[in-house]
């Protein structure tokens, strides 16, 4: 028929995810089979939605189109491996049932890989608490000792103490979409605070609460996104 639009492909939908997730949802309503499609590298719409922090698309893919939250790419990595925001990690784990213990082809969990790369310490801290503490609530991660393993000499910070609560539901999606790697000053401050003798004391926890609140609500610093994100198009 003249003027009829060609059927969309998974490549087209993946290209639309970063800037037009609403259009992806519109196209999926007419072409639902594409929800679980993957490109030549196993990259899926769920990976893309997790990486770009598009929560409505993420929820729709799992809840409406029944895509597995543990769908894997060619490296045997689920969407948790490409998350850049604690709020998205929390959504995948607590709402959508993603497996925090899943291991990729390098025998790493998402938390281990993200921690080793060092770009998203808050995501690593949340995943660590969800995996080890039996409590996947990002507002109250379990306290553990700081890791001595780091990247470029920077120790990965510990999760928050039990009485430090950050309400992830108050983070606007628009601010999450712009999340970038924490700047060196933020990493220096959280490393310095974690090393203090009074870290578990009232003053140390107060300063940690302020620092993490600032980071969660304003992590959109200049920088490059993680290399793990696929280039599409």
From TrEMBL:
Transmembrane segments: none annotated. InterPro entries: Ankyrin_rpt, Ankyrin_rpt-contain_sf. Residues 133-163 are annotated as: Disordered. Residues 136-147 have a biased composition (Low complexity). It comes from the Eukaryota. This is Ankyrin repeat protein. It comes from Coniosporium apollinis (strain CBS 100218).
